[in-house]
Each structure stands twice: as C-alpha cells, then as structure tokens.
Amino acid sequence: MSTVNLSEITKRFGDVTAVKGLDLLIKEGEFFTFLGPSGCGKTTTLRMIAGFYYPTEGKVKFNDKDMTRVAPEKRNTGMVFQNYALFPHMTVFENVAFGLKVRKISKTEIKKKVGDVLKKVRLDQYIGRQVSQLSGGQQQRVALARALVIEPDILLLDEPLSNLDAKLREEMRTEILRLQREYGITTIYVTHDQVEALTMSDRIAVFNIGKCHQVGTPTEIYNKPVNDFVAKFIGETNLLPVSFKEHKDTKSVFYTPDMDQSIFVHNTELNIASYTNEDKLYMSVRPEAVKIDTNKLDGNNVFTGSVSLVQFTGEAVHTYVKMNDQITIKTTNLNKGPSTYLNEGTEVNIQFPEDQIRVIPGEKG
Ligand SMILES: Nc1ncnc2c1ncn2[C@@H]1O[C@H](COP(=O)(O)OP(=O)(O)OP(=O)(O)O)[C@@H](O)[C@H]1O
C-alpha cells in the first residue's frame, strides 16, 4: 500500500497543456476517483502516476519516494485499461500469468498466484478458456485479475466499465469495490460518469480543462460544490445568475435578474467581500430541494409558474416549471403514485428553501 503525492504537476504536449499545476494527496488504501468531461486531463494524470508519461513540471511521489521519472515497470502499479488490453488468443491463465512470467517467478508459484486471484474475481472455472470466448464482463474480470496478481501497491483503473452495458456496469461496480476492500489497495479510478464516482469513491477530484476544481467526499462534492462547473457536472441543478444585495442577521439577500426577484439565503458560506462586481455569482438549488405545490406555500422564496413537462423515471418524477420565457425550474420528487402527478399547464407554487440554496462563484479559467 502506498500514498500518492502529486505536487505542482503540469503536463504539456506541444502547445496543449493537458494538466496545469495539479496538487493532490491520495491516502493509503483510499478509493480515489478522477472525474471530469472528456479531454480534461484525467487519463494524462493517471498515466503520469503509472509512468507512461513524465510530467513537464512537478513531482510524483509514492509515500516519500520520488517516482517522477521512474520507469513504469519499476513502480509496482497495476493498471486496467478501458479496452482491457488483453491477448485475445491466449487463455485466461496465460493472460493473468503474463506479468508474473516477466518478473521471472517460478512456475509453481505462478500457478498458485493465478489460481488464487482467479478465485477472487470468480473466474476459476474459466482458467483454460481463450479470452476471445469470454463475455465483456468476464474479460473485465481477467483484466482486473491481471492487474491484481502482481500484488501492486497502487491499482489504476482507466474508465474500466465504459464498454459494458448498464446492468453489468452496476454489477462490476460492486465487484471492483469488493476486491478493493479485500485487498485494501490504494486505488485511483478514472471516469466521466458521476454516478460511478459518487457511489464508489472515498474521495473524488473534479477536473475541467486541465485543472482540478474540487477534492472531497461524494457528499461534500454534491452538497457543497465550489463553483458553477462542479455544481452542473455533479448531478443536476437549477443555476441562476445572482448579485449580492445585503446581509440581514443570519440571512443574505441576493437579486436574480432572470426572475426579477430577491432571493433569501440562510447562512451563505460565500465570502462576499472577496468578490467584485465583475465576478459572476450563481445560486444553485438541486431539483430535489425545490418544493412544489398547487396550494399556497409559506415563507420566503416562493414563486409561481406553470408545469411545462413531467418526466417519469419509475422511482422519481421530474416536474419542470416554466417561470417566464427564460427560466424553467426543474423539481424532483420520489414517485408517490398517479394521484400526485401534475398535468402540463397546471399553475403551481415553487419554493427554494433558504437553507438549501448555495451561492457559488463562476468557474475561473
Ligand atoms: N499524447 C498526446 N499528445 C497530444 N495531446 C494529448 C496527448 N494525450 C492527451 N492529449 C491532450 O491533452 C488533453 C487531456 O487529455 P486526457 O486524455 O488526459 O483527457 P481525459 O480527461 O482523460 O479525456 P477522455 O475521457 O476523453 O480520455 C486533451 O486536450 C488531449 O487532446
């Protein structure tokens, strides 16, 4: 097991800066996820940890050991690739044994280690099968077994589930987590899928355009996004530009030009003094936090609109409420049966609860 410490990492490919000034400390035994849209620098960062790329600037350390320019085979990391990178015409045994043969381990020991790891990934009965004759999920398990068999200090997973269908993806999420907990291995997982990141990780780093915007536990990232990019990328949110008006006891008042209304926010954590008029500010309120009712609602932040769309997903019902020509607010409620569904065109009241609004700055380049 090992910690991974990245300090002031920058990676340039010619004119393209793939990663800019990245600092990260990944703890021993942690399941840590790099999350972000395509091209944001997740894979480049993972490859610098694996040693396939060297950083242009900055340091990579495992525990206290400087690994910045150490060759990949000398790092003791196990990597699982998006396309598995297996040898299709070799058997499961041969694929998993490959890394051990390179390390010149005795035949008896190889047999034992491969047998053990295949039991762990529940593939022992397929040991002699050619990889090309396995399903996608089984191939993914072979790739995992091959990474784990060398007993790596760090497990690196690059979008390992993106080629699987939705049901199998969910199954493999649980499987990967089970193995990670059993081995207690420091794991870095790359994905652009927020549900995967939220359900699997101890902590998540959210990337955009070569920069890491926030590091935190899934609940911190979801409940307290640091800016508009993180709020939009993780889950769904209603985001409206606002400007600061005044403080009132434990409340702050903002103004939203899009709705031409004042918005009361309870105990905003935003340090207003550090923002100028040029800085963009937004109020973010999650759809599940918005109250919706055909009856009158008491308190601040109550607005009227009309239902423009109802989407049924099985467990939840999303009701979109048109406030004016520019603004539609999304609300989400658990499915409480057909009598609670609203018809399009119904006049409703919605409320943004004061303690569920987060005022956040716009992303800075
Ligand atoms: N070998 C390379 N040569 C030149 N540019 C590269 C190279 N590898 C990555 N880049 C560029 O660096 C940026 C970050 O790429 P990276 O693959 O790290 O992103 P990513 O977040 O992993 O995206 P994806 O999810 O699509 O794999 C992109 O603009 C990409 O085009």
From TrEMBL:
Q: Which InterPro entries match?
A: AAA+_ATPase, ABC_SmlMolc_Importer, ABC_transporter-like_ATP-bd, ABC_transporter-like_CS, Mo/tungstate-bd_C_term_dom, NA-bd_OB-fold, P-loop_NTPase, PotA-like
UniProt catalytic activity: ATP + H2O + polyamine-[polyamine-binding protein]Side 1 = ADP + phosphate + polyamineSide 2 + [polyamine-binding protein]Side 1
What EC class does the entry list? translocase
By its UniProt entry, which SUPFAM superfamilies does this protein fall under?
A: MOP-like (SSF50331), P-loop containing nucleoside triphosphate hydrolases (SSF52540)
The protein's matches in Gene3D superfamilies, at most eight in alphabetical order, are given as: 2.40.50.100, Nucleic acid-binding proteins, P-loop containing nucleotide triphosphate hydrolases
Query: Is the keyword Transport assigned to this protein?
Result: yes
Question: What EC number(s) would the UniProt record show?
Answer: 7.6.2.11
Q: What is the protein name stated in its UniProt record?
A: Spermidine/putrescine import ATP-binding protein PotA
Cite the PANTHER family for this sequence.
Answer: SPERMIDINE/PUTRESCINE IMPORT ATP-BINDING PROTEIN POTA, SPERMIDINE_PUTRESCINE IMPORT ATP-BINDING PROTEIN POTA
Q: Which Pfam families is this protein grouped with?
A: ABC_tran (PF00005), TOBE_2 (PF08402)
Q: Which organism is it from?
A: Lentibacillus populi
How it assembles, according to the record, is:
The complex is composed of two ATP-binding proteins (PotA), two transmembrane proteins (PotB and PotC) and a solute-binding protein (PotD).
- Give any GO molecular function from the UniProt entry: ABC-type polyamine transporter activity
Q: Would you identify the family this protein belongs to, as annotated?
A: Belongs to the ABC transporter superfamily. Spermidine/putrescine importer (TC 3.A.1.11.1) family.
Among the entry's GO cellular component annotations, what is one? Answer: ATP-binding cassette (ABC) transporter complex
Q: What does this protein do?
A: Part of the ABC transporter complex PotABCD involved in spermidine/putrescine import. Responsible for energy coupling to the transport system.
Domain ABC transporter: start-end pairs: 4-234
The UniProt keyword set, sorted, is:
ATP-binding, Cell membrane, Membrane, Nucleotide-binding, Translocase, Transport
